[in-house]
Amino acid sequence: MPGSLGRGRRVYTFRTCVYPHLRRKPRHAYLGSVIRRIFFFLLLLVSTLAAAAPKTEKIGAFTEGSEKLNAALQSDGYRIYLPNTLACCDVWLAKKVATGKSNAPGANYPEFHESEFLGVINFPKGGGGDFRGQTIKAGSYTMRYELLPSDGNHMGVAPYPDMVLLIPVADDPDPDAKFDFAKMVELSAKAAGTAHPAAFEMMPAHDGQAAVFQTDDGWVVFQAEIATDSGNPLKVAFVVKGSGEQ
Q1: In a domain, 222, yes or no
Q2: pLDDT tens digit string along 189-200?
Q3: What is the separation, in whole angstroms, between the first and last Cα of the chain?
């Protein structure tokens, strides 16, 4: 037989004798190879998605403010990383916040008083941005709670009326200080370097979400618990990266 190396009932072709690895593999072996490749691809995909998710890590105490300000903060802070693994900001939450009850329609945090001190945020070299899309210079800022005015000028600015306004640490050394809305806007405008306050949108907190997560809109949201004077901790969440339509 042409191409054969032997005679008889069993025929050995040149290919199967000289190149035994070219013999046709059993069907189950082929399926096993496909399954292994699919499994490897899925594992690689999951690992890639996990690496692309925003993350946090614990950091030490904040020490750049006044003695009273530093003492009002939790001893540990959070470093927030974006999905591209770049550090977005560092956050230190207040040890305890005073709570009450407001009648603000649509508020997710009616327990907070206006201008309530919530913590401190620091932007690394390169700075950051607020929910209006304004550039915030590198440095440290206090975070205080404020409500959007319910007037026509602020309709559609954000999905919720709860906001965190940023104030340069040097201009806000006393966490117990209370400010009216006009003063809050004046002080926070220094953080943005414009006529508008530097504001972060507050979101409803979710127990099922991680400490930092990304919404369908691409916003990076940080959330954690703050102790309150009522004895019941309150989980807060706010956008640290991303802007709304203006």
Answers
A1: yes
A2: 999 999 999 999
A3: 82
